[in-house]
Design brief:
336 residues, alpha+beta, 7-stranded antiparallel sheet, 4-stranded antiparallel sheet, 13 strands, globular
């Protein structure tokens, strides 16, 4: 409860100077006091610093960000956003077990991340999520399509952020980070030659996973050279257990396929896999991997929670929408 002496002083004055000397009827006094209590309630709610997103039912606070800070796209240096992401990826420590992946904290500055959450919570651009076929509970908005064309409204916060995250500099940083996997996948071609000779695009989607969503272990489609997840967790409402999990196939016979071949329901698909690592769903981090023969990852049922992410994919244009599963194959063994 806010400690506003002037407010309570005004209420006291109203009581002693007005009610006691002017109003005498008990019903009138009661009516006036009900009015005063309503004003008090509005005052308290206005000053408790909490924003409610009625679309999701979550209580979300713009904690650590003064209302005086302007989060409009004109007030954010998106070139610095891009530079920070590139530097974070360059200096990230890569893990090779059971396949090449990185987990990077503080991918955005505190101010930029708070602005991302503010735009996400306030829905300043009237975002329209579209349910994804075959995956109940997953909804997405295309920011950049698989051919590299910006789909986000421009000019806007999401449009400028999409251009920063989907830039050639960021794309190249991810490809170089997974250079060993790239060289294996592209037949021994050095990573710099891959960047010169293979047409790579950078797709981005704003994604919201809702109640009951899960996706069984999978290795990702062949068109993806790098898969990226920017976690957009709210500090007060995030559930660390709904993050992506990394698996290893127990019998290895499914390695080389996109999904396990022998199970009839998604829930049973987890049985043939051993969890190796759980990537916690926490604020302001990115998880990225280079798909390969056994790059198994998935999400177990998130229950009644929600999961906001920006999904990014460095895609091989030649393979987008085509079979070509044997060309530039993610069938290649993982670098360990």
């Amino acid at each position: 409860m806010p400690n506003n002496k002037e407010f309570w002083k005004t209420i006291g004055y109203f009581h002693h100077r007005v009610l006691d000397k002017v109003i005498t009827g008990p019903l009138v006094v009661l009516s006036v006091w009900i009015f005063v209590l309503l004003i008090t309630f509005v005052f308290l709610k206005k000053n408790d610093g909490t924003e409610r997103d009625f679309n999701t039912g979550l209580m979300k606070k713009s904690e650590g960000l003064s209302e005086e800070i302007n989060c409009s796209y004109e007030k954010i240096d998106f070139q610095r956003v891009e530079q920070r992401v590139v530097e974070k990826i360059k200096t990230a420590q890569i893990k090779h077990v059971p396949f090449s992946h990185v987990f990077v904290e503080g991918i955005f500055s505190e101010r930029v991340y708070a602005c991302v959450l503010r735009h996400l919570a306030n829905d300043t651009e009237n975002l329209k999520y579209v349910p994804m076929e075959n995956w109940p509970g997953r909804n997405s908005i295309p920011l950049i399509d698989k051919f590299g064309k910006v789909k986000a409204k421009e000019p806007s916060f999401w449009g400028h952020l999409s251009r920063a995250l989907g830039s050639d500099e960021v794309k190249n940083a991810y490809v170089r980070k997974f250079g060993a996997t790239m060289e294996t996948r592209f037949g021994g071609m050095k990573v710099e030659r891959v960047l010169q000779n293979v047409r790579l695009n950078h797709r981005l989607d704003l994604t919201r996973d809702t109640s009951g969503f899960s996706i069984p272990p999978h290795t990702d489609t062949n068109e993806k050279a790098v898969s990226i997840l920017y976690y957009l967790a709210f500090p007060e409402t995030s559930n660390t257990s709904v993050g992506t999990r990394i698996y290893a196939s127990k019998n290895k016979r499914d390695d080389g396929s996109r999904y396990p071949r022998s199970t009839s329901t998604p829930s049973k698909n987890f049985n043939d896999f051993e969890e190796v690592e759980s990537i916690p769903f926490v604020p302001n981090v990115v998880f990225a991997l280079a798909p390969c023969r056994s790059s198994w990852h998935g999400v177990e049922n998130i229950g009644n929670g929600e999961r906001d992410t920006i999904q990014g994919f460095v895609t091989i244009e030649e393979l987008v929408g085509e079979g070509h599963f044997d060309k530039y194959g993610s069938q290649k063994p993982c670098v360990v």
